[in-house]
Amino acid sequence: MIGLVGILWLMIWGGMFADPGSMRDWSFMNGLFALVQGLRSLLPLLAVYFCLLWIFMKRARFPFVRMPLGYLFAYCGLGLATSAFISPDRWISIYYGLAYLAPLIVAWMSFEKEDTVSLLGNIMVINEFVAYGVVFALLPEVIRVGTVYNRFVQVFQLPFGLGEMRANGVGRFALAAIILAFIRLVTSSHRLRAAWLIPILPALFILAQSRSRSSFLGLAVCSLIFVFIWGLDWRFFLVGPVSAYLIWLSVFKWRLHGHVERLMYLTGREFTWQRGLEQIKQSPFLGWGFHADRLLLESEHMHNSYLHSGIQAGLFGALFFAAAVISTWVVIFKSKLPARLKSAPDPERRFLAQAVLLVGFLTARSFFESTAAFYGVDLLLFVPAACYIYAWTAENPLSSAAEAMNGQAGPENERRSQPA
Questions:
Q1: Domain residue spans in the chain?
Q2: How far apart are CA 21 and CA 97, in angstroms?
Q3: CA contacts within 13 A on the Cβ side of 130
């Protein structure tokens, strides 16, 4: 069963690509669709409200000191305080700050239950099928654009008027679907496991059509991480040339038109970074609140997670955000997760592999996109992945694993729960 945590997570997804400005159109006079779009933007805030009610009723304590989720809470708290007192548009900033809080507080709710690992695994399954759904929903639009235009297309329209997505966002969804389905393929022992090629093949096509350099960088990083944790396999010698050809065709031939020197062209990001730094200098310690880049830079996007967190929550907020990313990798290597991953039982092995690859992709992406620094798709992918890694390693400490290998593990080392 999806449970309360799953319903709340679906509510957070339900507000994605919704504009709070659409709440001005709340009227049946403007049509049912306008009303639905306006209501959609409230779903993440309702998730926060229900979670707060649950936490107050349970009198839950905050247990996230010096862990990835705790650093994200600190960053969010600073950003919300700045949004309330400094932001040039207080209510817009508070809205996006609360939307950012939503996945964090749902994750907190998961940690308050005994079956934390199972609940986080369920959230990752929701993310997985959202990624597949978006890939198939975008496929007709990508085919239309790919067969009509030869130039690089920046914006793709979601079906049913749900919003629009830039090429980098389209590539992000495609690569996420590839990662999740590929891990399903290699970890499954079912005779129908080849069915996971059904989402992989269109996702590869969409990734190529997006021509997203940050997504192809993520593909390269994830490939290296996967070989590192999984070891070499004869199948990789077939996948490697396919990936190389895809990168050559999409990036070098289509995007760069054969001019490799254009690979380092930042498409204007350097000017946005410079303007963002000027704004950060004016409020270096507190920032300007959530959504500050759009409010102060004429709707421009920062395209860098650390500068984005800096313009929203200042230097301290940027440090907390960076600590969330770094501490996730510290947990991965300190717990020797890459060496232990293949011996983990199913479905934990699948979730761990998916989580590590997603964190790898999003970390690489964070230097050229605002990964997880604001309410968006990347945040909803990063939070459960990082939390799953932390929760699993906490329930399976390295010392207990070593004792189990030596046949010395006792009842006290048994896990509290098994994931569904």
A1: 3-395
A2: 15
A3: 20
Largest CA distance in the chain: 71
Side chain identity at residue 320, one-letter code = F
| Residues 363/385, Cβ–Cβ less than 8 Å | no
Report the C-alpha gap between 356 and 230 in whole angstroms.
Answer: 12
Q: pTM score, two decimals? A: 0.88
Q: What is the pLDDT of residue 405?
A: 46
Beta strands (DSSP E) in 174-281 are: none
State the DSSP code for 159: G
Q: How many CA atoms lie within 13 A of 254 on its CB side?
A: 20
Question: Beta strand pairing status for 164-166 and 155-157?
Answer: antiparallel
Mean of pLDDT over the chain: 84
The phi and psi torsions of 63 (rounded to 5 degrees) equal -105, 15
- Residue whose tokens read 């009509």: 148
Peptide bond into 347 cis (omega under 30): yes
Please give, one letter per residue, the 3-state secondary structure of 165-197: EEHHHHHHHHHHHHHHHHHHHHHCCCCCHHHHH
The packing angle between helices 377-395 and 3-14, to 10°, is 160
pLDDT in tens, 156-203: 888 777 778 888 889 999 999 999 999 999 888 777 888 999 999 999
